[in-house]
Write a structure and sequence with these properties.
The protein is mainly beta. It is built from no helices and 13 strands. Helix content is 0%, strand content 29%. The two termini are 23 Å apart.
């Protein structure tokens, strides 16, 4: 359940179509992007902090030197995304989809990755620190359950 910081109003961009956007040196803070579509967008030194990005689409997104901090992102879909030096800190990624995603120098710190799917992810070198792993699907199709 998202925290009370998501109060709605002008900061509520639920369902927004953000496809094909170019974000440079921009960090969105405490905005609701529930079910938003960021597919085919480019993020350079950009990201999100304290946002509700639950069930958002990041298909074919390219993100470099950015990340996500303290975000609520269950069910987010990152299929075929390309990440380079991206950090996920304190992010709820339950049931997130990372199928066929490039995770170059990408790390996950204090994240909930229960039921996340990393099938076919590349450049995946156990990037987890203090994360919850429960029935999480690894790139080779194996299922892991442990805290790392």
């Amino acid at each position: 359940m998202p925290s009370k910081k998501y109060a709605g109003g002008e900061r509520d961009k639920t369902g927004r179509n953000c496809r094909g956007a170019n974000w440079r040196d921009e960090v969105d803070i405490e905005i609701i992007y529930h079910q938003a579509d960021f597919s085919n967008s480019y993020f350079d030194s950009s990201g999100f902090s304290g946002c509700d990005l639950s069930f958002s689409k990041f298909l074919y997104v390219r993100m470099y030197e950015g990340g996500f901090a303290d975000c609520y992102m269950p069910g987010a879909n990152f299929t075929y995304a390309t990440f380079g030096q991206v950090v996920f800190n304190d992010v709820d990624l339950r049931s997130a989809i990372f199928k066929n995603t490039d995770l170059v120098e990408t790390s996950f710190r204090r994240c909930n990755l229960a039921y996340a799917d990393f099938t076919g992810a590349r450049e995946f070198f156990r990037p987890f620190k203090e994360c919850l792993i429960y029935e999480t699907i690894m790139p080779d199709g194996s299922i892991r359950t442990d805290d790392v």
